């Protein structure tokens, strides 16, 4: 991946963290935010991977739909 593409990807991923209101909900505690992401990664490595993906995908689609209606 080229540097410019990587930079764009990182900015977009940061935007998702902000869109999920994790910055406000955690008081911008980056250790907590990283812990949440590490926990999600552990779930994706486990037996509940497919169920978690399905659930999180549905929630993500709903969140995008709600924010586009604002």
How would you describe what is shown here?
The chain has 70 residues and is mainly alpha-helical. It has helices at 3-19, 22-25, 30-44, 49-68. The chain is globular, with a radius of gyration of 14 Å. The termini are far apart.
List keywords for this structure.
single chain, about 70 residues, mainly alpha
Characterize the biggest β-sheet: none
- What helical percentage do the residues reach? over 70%
Count of runs of 4 or more consecutive helical residues: 4
The SSE string, one letter per element, is HHHH
From the helix content, strand content and strand pairing, which structural class follows? mainly alpha
Shape type: globular
The portion of residues forming beta strands comes to under 5%
Average pLDDT for all residues: 95
- N-to-C CA distance: 34 Å
How would you concisely characterize the structure shown here?
It is built from 4 helices and no strands. With 70 residues, the chain is mainly α.
Record the SSE blueprint.
Elements: H1 3-19, H2 22-25, H3 30-44, H4 49-68
């Amino acid at each position: 991946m080229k540097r410019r593409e990587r930079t764009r990807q990182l900015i977009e991923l940061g935007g998702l963290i902000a869109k999920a209101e994790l910055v406000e909900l955690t008081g911008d505690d980056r250790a907590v935010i990283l812990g949440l992401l590490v926990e999600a990664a552990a779930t994706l490595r486990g037996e509940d991977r497919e169920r978690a993906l399905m659930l999180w995908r549905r929630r993500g689609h709903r969140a995008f739909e709600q924010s586009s209606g604002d």
